[in-house]
Amino acid sequence: MAPLGVGTSLQESLPSYINRLADAHEMSVVTFLSNEVMPGLDLATNTPPSNYLGTGSRFLFLGERLAVKVAKRLASLTGVPEVTALVHHHLSGSLGWTRDFRDYSAWCPECFAEWDDAGEPLYFPLLWAFREVHCCSRHDVPLVEECPYCNQRFRFLTGQVWDGTCDRCERKLAEVRGSGRPTQWAVDFTRLVEGLVGWSAALTEPNDFVSMLVDNIKRASVSVGGGKPLSACWGSVLAPWVFGFPVGRRVC
């Protein structure tokens, strides 16, 4: 089973993929972790599966050592090498799982409805897990953070599989449609994080970053008339462009 959205800003998160994989094999998540994943991780300590669930599932978002080991183990089990791309080495050095990620899942109701209508699986992209992502840029609606019927919130990975319904009221979340419009600051923050995640998802090896940076510097130099004008502009509007953002967008 291949992960969804690989190479895009809506690339599936590793906890979401684990959930779908356990569901496909008709196992609970905790059984899947205990019997299939953890025995092949070669960890120094005998970590209980509960450490991967609930709040601890945020450890699996980026490219830290645990996330890398889990992704490689799943790639080996499934025979799908793309699974290793679900962890992001280029983001892990500057982002933190407690500071930058939500405590509970958030989702776009229009994406869920669209995927459900098309018979496609519901999943949680890594992008939606970031605290500063407040809306869906595809549908221009705010993300939803709790069941609209009973206000239940959902961890990114629990002991049981998530099948698209609320585990409290058993209503289908894909039945909810988006409402309201996001504020401009919410749109701006979302697009900045989306650009960062899309950039990282498009990379496969550290060398890709170097080649992309050199190519972008060359294009920037040509666009402004040479190296000296580029140097004068550096730090204002061209630095974000060189790193993959549009000209004129400032990055905090």
Give me some keywords for this one.
mainly alpha, 252 residues, 9 helices, single chain
Overview of this protein structure:
- This protein has helices spanning 14-24, 29-37, 65-78, 89-92, 109-117, 184-201, 206-224, 227-233, 238-242, and strands at 135-136, 141-142.
- With 252 residues, the protein is an all-alpha fold.
- It has a domain at 205-252.
Describe the secondary structure blueprint for this structure:
Elements: H1 14-24, H2 29-37, H3 65-78, H4 89-92, H5 109-117, E1 135-136, E2 141-142, H6 184-201, H7 206-224, H8 227-233, H9 238-242
Antiparallel strand pairs: 1-2
Helix pairs in contact: 7-8
Distance between the termini: 38 Å
Q: Hey, roughly how much beta strand do the residues contain?
A: under 5%
The neighbouring-strand order within the major sheet is 1-2
Strand and helix order: HHHHHEEHHHH
The structure class reads: mainly alpha
By DSSP (H or I, 4+ residues per run), the number of helices equals 9
Tally of DSSP β-strands = 2
Could you list the spans in which at least 5 consecutive residues all have pLDDT below 50? Answer: 236-252
Shape call? globular
**Rg, alpha carbons:** 20 Å
What share of the residues lie within helices?
25-40%
Largest sheet: number of strands, sense, barrel closure: 2 strands, antiparallel
Integer average pLDDT: 83
